[in-house]
Amino acid sequence: MGILLSRFVSSFFASIWGWKSVYLFAAGCMLIALILVRRFLPEDSSKKEKQSGYFKIAFSCFSLLKSNAGVRLYSLNGFLIMAIFSVFWNNISIYLVHEFNFNQFSIGLFSLAGVLGALAAMFSNKALKFFKYNNVILFILLLICFLFILFYSSYLLVFILLTLAMDGLIQLIHVNNQVNLYGNCRGNESRAASCYVTSFVLGGAIGSKLSTYIYSYYGWVGLSIFCSSLCAIGLILNIKKFYEQEAG
Q1: Does 48 map to a domain?
Q2: How many domains, in total, are found in the chain?
Q3: pLDDT in tens, the chain (248 residues)
Q4: Owning domain of residue 199
Q5: Torsion-angle region of residue 18: left (phi > 0), alpha (psi -120 to 50) or beta?
Q6: H runs (alpha helix) in the chain
Q7: What is the model's pTM?
């Protein structure tokens, strides 16, 4: 929600006050965050323990990633969906300008479609029950969504609906990953969460970097194929996990 809303706010500010206003707004957000952290985050009573314990905690997270197949799978899932999310949203502005002649404010309005899709997380409990908490089904639907994007993204209304579906499915996979992740590592939930969030952030960073090259050389079609390929990888990984569970 924060990522998608920030796109709308930044487009709104840039269209009225110019791009530098975005940096001023970001600086203000950081100042507010600093005040909140200083006000509400409790002080560590043992600074010596904090200094000596951080790296031990970090390495213990890596050991859990190595020893627990469930943590590896759901961390990889997180990596893939955040890479897909970043590939799509980091290049959408250029595509909307070239394909539909959108201005800065219109691009911001389009990002609200993503916000609406992200609201699927609020209804994730019922939706995941319907899909039986099965990531295989969700990745199949996400793959189908990107195949439609590949062929029908030149139709604005269809593209908006596909964007809603894509963001909704990514949110459902994201929530389902965490449900299954914590179920596979009782007693190590905090370390598992660290593994997952680290993989999630790395997926976003690497996806963003790769997408710039892909869009430069192959355009929107190349990005759609790349996202479809990432969906296919996620599908294969989860099908393998599904059959292993069935065999067990």
Answers
A1: yes
A2: 2
A3: 788 788 788 878 887 888 888 899 899 999 999 999 998 887 765 555 555 566 777 777 777 878 888 889 999 999 999 999 999 998 898 899 999 999 878 888 888 877 777 777 777 888 888 888 889 999 999 999 999 999 999 999 999 999 999 999 999 999 999 888 887 777 778 888 888 999 999 999 999 999 999 999 999 999 999 999 999 999 999 998 777 665 55
A4: 68-247
A5: left
A6: 2-17, 20-40, 47-67, 69-100, 104-118, 124-130, 135-152, 156-183, 189-247
A7: 0.84
